[in-house]
Design goal:
The complex is a heterodimer.
Chain A lengths: L1 E4 L2 H7 L5 E3 L7 H11 L19 E5 L2 E2 L11 H4 L5 E5 L5
Chain B lengths: L2 E8 L2 E7 L7 E6 L4 E7 L7 E7 L3 E7 L7 E2 L12 E3 L5 E3 L4 E7 L7 E6 L2 E5 L7 E2 L20 E7 L7 E6 L2 E5 L7 E2 L20 E6 L7 E5 L3 E4 L7 E2 L12 E3 L7 E3 L17 E4 L7 E3 L17 E3 L7 E4 L5 E4 L7 E4 L5 E9 L1
Antiparallel strand pairs in B: 1-2, 1-30, 2-3, 4-5, 5-6, 6-7, 8-9, 10-11, 11-12, 12-13, 14-15, 15-16, 16-17, 18-19, 19-20, 20-21, 22-23, 23-24, 24-25, 26-27, 27-28, 28-29
The chains are: A alpha+beta, B mainly beta.
């Protein structure tokens, strides 16, 4: 199981508390994790990556194992500790705005 | 419950204000969707418990919410707004070509007779429609594909399609307004469009009388007389008596003819309301006095309505979608401010009082008169 930590607004939207645990088929990558997340919580489609190009929204970043994974290719393997569920995959909103 | 339901979209959530027909005691519910920008929410004329809301932030993009119980519960609907085909370009602020990019939904206009059909006016300017209650959205691409589309430029607030007016007598006729392109009209349900800006004059532009390129802020119609349209333009209050074929200025004795919203009395098609704002660079009331102006003659002759409104040190704005009326016997008029006040008058504007004073900045306000 892979743990995903959502920003507060997306937890509210998906009606979940705390960390989301996902069963991901095949290799754990940004794409496979987000595919699994959106399949389970369809209301999140379009809020983390855009519908058409599947690009990460500009004010969101992805972290795992204290590393910024935002600019990794979407099909690159996630760190082992994330893939094995020892560390969560963090979706973080920019601290910006008013 | 018979009475009035006021739907308020703010910079940080939605609020629903309800009262019985006396409109003296109000229940304020919210924030709904706290922390999100609610550009607009509106109820279906065919089913007042069916509400649609546009919810967005810069972080997470656009969501559409739907309620089937008058706003007690909500469900996220489809949020995929894809332009048809190759979207091409419009003009950017500096005149260079800029790709059409979806930003947000400014305005939702439910069909007059089908609760599952709703139109969405979006930035970058385009018109979308859903016929399945908001689950999926399809563009009506002929509008953006108009010959002038590549020349449209954004106003200061973005290139938004902010006003959608449905003709109650002619189901295939729709008016839309775009900042800063102007008014367009279709008579065939969106298959073809033509500009409806003759008579508008925008000083300071290369061609003040251009067919397209006017910063129209808002248009309104009285349903009993759909060929008469009223407009608050960037500067100038305008009127058309021929369904937008031509426009005449009716600013008359207003202290400033700059402003954003314009409203029409529910029972008197010639009684209209505006909120004069000092200028396009100073978005607050002249002299720090918040005054609604009412004309009972369809324009030109205006009276200031001030009872109950702050007459000193008031520097709020009233945005284009933030004024509406109810249709009770004594027409109620409502508006929200960027200072978070929602004012109501239950006597057609003679006297005003705040329903609530300290909301986040009000982006939009709609009123439902409940049977």
């Amino acid at each position: 199981m892979i743990g995903v930590v959502l920003p507060a607004h997306l937890r509210t939207l998906a009606q979940v508390d705390g960390e989301v645990e996902l069963q991901v088929e095949g290799q754990a990558t940004q794409r496979s994790v987000l595919d699994a997340l959106e399949a389970r919580y369809p209301m999140l489609r379009g809020t983390i990556r855009d519908h058409a190009a599947q690009e990460r929204r500009a004010f969101l970043r992805f972290f795992g194992c204290q590393q910024d994974l935002s600019h990794e290719p979407p099909d690159a393997p996630l760190p082992d500790a994330v893939a094995m569920g020892a560390e969560p995959f963090l979706i973080v909103g920019a601290m910006a705005g008013g | 419950m018979s009475g009035v339901r006021v739907l308020v979209g703010t910079r940080k959530g939605a609020f629903i204000l309800t009262s019985d027909q006396r409109r003296t005691r109000w229940e304020v519910r919210g924030p709904i969707f706290p922390g999100w920008e609610i550009y607009h929410l509106k109820g279906s004329p065919a089913d007042p418990n069916r509400l649609y809301a546009s919810q967005s932030t810069g972080w997470f993009g656009q969501l559409i919410q739907r309620s089937n119980d008058g706003g007690k519960t909500w469900e996220p609907m489809g949020n995929q707004f894809d332009y048809e085909g190759d979207p091409g370009t419009h003009q950017w602020y500096d005149g260079t070509p800029h790709p059409w990019e979806f930003q947000r939904v400014w305005h939702l206009e439910p069909s007059l007779n089908d609760p599952d059909t709703v139109y969405a006016g979006v930035e970058d300017a385009a018109l979308f429609r859903s016929i399945d209650g908001g689950q999926t959205w399809q563009e009506l691409p002929a509008l953006r594909g108009h010959d002038s589309g590549a020349s449209w430029q954004p106003g200061a607030g973005g290139m938004c399609l902010h006003t959608i007016v449905l003709d109650p007598n002619e189901p295939d006729r729709i008016f839309v307004a775009i900042s800063a392109a102007g008014v367009f009209r279709t008579d065939d349900a969106g298959q073809t469009w033509r500009p409806a800006n003759r008579g508008l004059r925008s000083e300071g532009t290369p061609d003040p009388n251009a067919e397209v390129g006017h910063c129209v802020h808002r248009i309104e119609m009285h349903p009993s007389r759909p060929n008469v349209l009223y407009m608050q333009k960037h500067w100038d209050v305008m009127r058309s008596d021929d369904a937008g074929e031509s426009w005449q200025e009716v600013s008359g004795n207003l202290p400033s003819d700059f402003g954003f919203p314009i409203g029409v009395h529910a029972h008197e098609p010639d009684t209209i309301y505006v909120v004069p704002i000092k200028s396009d660079s100073e978005h607050f009331p002249p002299e720090g006095k918040l005054r609604v102006y009412r004309s009972r003659t369809g324009g030109n002759e205006w009276d200031a309505l001030t009872n109950g409104l702050p007459q000193s040190n008031c520097y709020v704005n009233v945005l284009r979608d933030a004024m509406a009326v109810d249709s009770l016997d004594s027409c109620g008029v409502y508006f929200g401010t960027t200072g978070g006040q929602v004012y109501a008058s239950i006597d057609a504007g003679d006297n005003w009082s705040p329903i609530v004073r300290d909301l986040p900045a009000v982006l939009s306000l709609e009123v439902q008169t409940l049977p």
